[in-house]
Write a structure and sequence with these properties.
Layout: H1 2-34, H2 41-48, H3 59-73, H4 78-85, H5 90-101, H6 110-118, H7 125-135
Helix pairs in contact: 1-2, 1-3, 2-4, 6-7
Length: about 140
């Protein structure tokens, strides 16, 4: 019985530690994106982790994630972001769309986001769906 409790507790602690580590990594990427710095594939994948179910109800992270999403779309990172987003699950993509439909900050410049999306050479369905959302 003690062994079972120990194993359960150890698993819980490792899982919690992993979440904290993931959370800190996500926050670092968001901070970098908000400074309009170039993001790597790994960093954008880390940002997309913020849309996982274990983080979706974190209000503070949700607000920052929403602002960061618009910063990424308004930056040079948009093409890489779209190419990685299309590889994600439909559930995660719908959560991204939900953030796009509900911008939190008044400082978001939708015109810059749209111009950035229009200027992309690739004419894929995901890009078109995002443009339709932002034009509403």
């Amino acid at each position: 019985m003690r062994l079972l409790i120990f194993i359960t507790f150890s698993f819980f602690c490792l899982n919690s530690f992993s979440q904290v580590e993931d959370y800190q990594g996500i926050m670092q990427v968001m901070d970098k994106a908000c400074k309009r710095e170039k993001l790597s594939v790994t960093e954008i994948k880390s940002f997309l982790c913020a849309y996982e179910n274990k983080y979706i109800f974190n209000v503070e992270l949700g607000e920052y994630r929403n602002e960061t999403l618009f910063q990424i779309i308004a930056s040079d990172n948009v093409s890489l972001f779209l190419s990685l987003l299309k590889k994600e699950s439909e559930d995660k993509i719908s959560k991204v769309f939900s953030d796009l439909q509900n911008p939190i900050s008044d400082t978001i410049n939708l015109e810059v986001c749209l111009e950035n999306l229009y200027s992309l050479k690739k004419n894929n369905k995901l890009r078109k769906r995002i443009i339709r959302i932002l034009e509403q």
